[in-house]
Design goal:
The protein has about 200 residues and is mainly α. Helices cover about 75% and strands about 0% of the residues.
C-alpha cells in the first residue's frame, strides 16, 4: 500500500521535461570537460530555459486554451502540439547552443532525443501511444553508460540507480494507469535505440 502511494512520485521526478537537465548535469559532473564555472552555469541556464521554463510556459498557455488537461498529457489527441514544441526547442538547442563542435556528447544525446520525439509523433498519427517517460529514462541511462565508457569514469552506482529507475518509472506509469505494458516497452526501445546508434559517433 505504501509503495503504491510512493510510485507516482517517480513519474514527476523523472518527467521527460527534466531529462535534458539531468543529462547535462551528468555530462558536466563526470565528463572530462574544461569549461570554467561560469561557462558551466551558462550551459545549465540555457538548458533550463529552453527545455524546462519555456515548455512549462507553453503548457500553461495550452492549459488555459483547453488544449491539455494535465502535466502528464495522457490524452492521445493532446500530445501533438507539445511534441511539436519539444522538437522545435531541441532543434534550436542543436542549431544555436549545444553544437557538435562544442559539446559532441551532449549534441548526440539531444539528437537522440530529437529522433525519439519525432518517432513518437509519427506513431501518434498512427494512433499508437508511447510512454515518453520511458523514452527519457532509458535514453538517460544509455547516456550515463556512454559517458562512463568514454571517460573511464566509475559511476557504477549511478548507472545501477538509473537502471532501477527504469523499473520504478514503468511501475509508476502502470500504477497511474497512464500506459499499458506494450506502450512502456515501446517507449523504452524508442529511447534506447537512437542513443545506442548515435553512440558510435562519439564513443
Amino acid at each position: 500500500m505504501v509503495l503504491k502511494k510512493i510510485l507516482p512520485v517517480f513519474s514527476y521526478l523523472f518527467h521527460p521535461i527534466f531529462i535534458p537537465i539531468f543529462g547535462t548535469l551528468l555530462y558536466l559532473l563526470y565528463g572530462e570537460n574544461y569549461f570554467a564555472l561560469q561557462q558551466q552555469r551558462l550551459i545549465l541556464f540555457q538548458m533550463l530555459l529552453i527545455t524546462v521554463l519555456i515548455p512549462i510556459s507553453f503548457f500553461y498557455l495550452l492549459k488555459t486554451l483547453g488544449k491539455v488537461d494535465s502535466v502528464m498529457v495522457s490524452n492521445l489527441s493532446q500530445r501533438k502540439i507539445p511534441l511539436l514544441i519539444q522538437l522545435l526547442l531541441i532543434f534550436i538547442l542543436l542549431k544555436k547552443s549545444i553544437t557538435l563542435a562544442l559539446f559532441p556528447e551532449l549534441f548526440f544525446f539531444l539528437l537522440g532525443g530529437f529522433i525519439s520525439t519525432f518517432l513518437t509523433l509519427i506513431l501518434l498519427f498512427a494512433k499508437i501511444k508511447i510512454s515518453i517517460h520511458m523514452i527519457g529514462i532509458s535514453a538517460l541511462t544509455v547516456f550515463a553508460i556512454g559517458v562512463s565508457l568514454l571517460y573511464q569514469t566509475n559511476i557504477l552506482f549511478l548507472i545501477s540507480f538509473l537502471i532501477l529507475m527504469n523499473g520504478m518509472v514503468a511501475a509508476s506509469r502502470l500504477q497511474m494507469k497512464a500506459h499499458t505494458t506494450v506502450e512502456l516497452v515501446l517507449g523504452f526501445i524508442i529511447g534506447l535505440l537512437p542513443q545506442l546508434a548515435l553512440g558510435w559517433f562519439w564513443l
